[in-house]
Amino acid sequence: MRHLELLLEFQEARCTVQTHNLTGCYKCESGAQLQYTCLTDQGDALANIECADGTVFSARCSPNGTFGRENLPFDHFQIKTKCRVDCPAGETQFELTGALYYVPIKKRFQHGYRDSETLDLPQEIGGILDSTH
């Protein structure tokens, strides 16, 4: 190879994430869908996002804001976790919150299907259901 050049661009961009909504289901194949916008104070950057509950993903960020969608697997109804956004200029934080739905998972056994038998309800709803029976 001749006349090969390598160009490395490094900017000290600070990133912030603004969440729009977290919808979908928990304990399901499709998971929950997070919609967000990632902004930088200068230039484009790729942010690494790590949440206290173990959720990890990356996001493209820009000065005008880059809209993103991420499918995330959760195993519980109520989501409330602090997340750290790591970019070249340091870290920022945001809180990821939402209430997800339960959708029974069809489990395949030989030639048939069986609905899953677990349902994780918040105490308020579980108490209402118990009092009606």
Describe the structure.
It is a single chain. With about 130 residues, this protein is mainly beta. The chain has a domain at about 15-100: Immunoglobulin-like (Sandwich). It has one helix and ten strands, in the order ββββββββββα. The protein has one helix at about 125-130; strands spanning about 15-25, 30-40, 45-50, 55-60, 65-70, 80-85, 90-100, 100, 105-110, 110-115. The strands form three sheets. The protein has a four-stranded mixed sheet, with no helix packed on it. A hairpin with a 5-residue loop joins strand 1 and strand 2.
- Specify the number of helices: 1
Structural class: mainly beta
> What share of residues are in beta strands?
over 45%
CATH architecture of the domain at 15-102: Sandwich
Shape: elongated
Helix share of residues?
Answer: under 10%
Mean pLDDT: 83
Main sheet attributes: strand count, strand direction, barrel closure = 4 strands, mixed
User: What order do the SSEs take from the amino end to the carboxyl end, as H and E?
Assistant: EEEEEEEEEEH
CATH topology of the domain at 15-102: Immunoglobulin-like
Strand order of the largest sheet: 5-2-1-8
Topology:
Blueprint: E1 15-26, E2 32-40, E3 45-51, E4 56-61, E5 66-72, E6 78-87, E7 90-99, E8 101-102, E9 106-109, E10 112-115, H1 123-131
Parallel strand pairs: 1-8
Antiparallel strand pairs: 1-2, 2-5, 3-4, 3-6, 6-7, 9-10
Summarize the structure.
This protein has 133 residues and is mostly beta strands. It has one helix at residues 123-131, and strands at residues 15-26, 32-40, 45-51, 56-61, 66-72, 78-87, 90-99, 101-102, 106-109, 112-115.
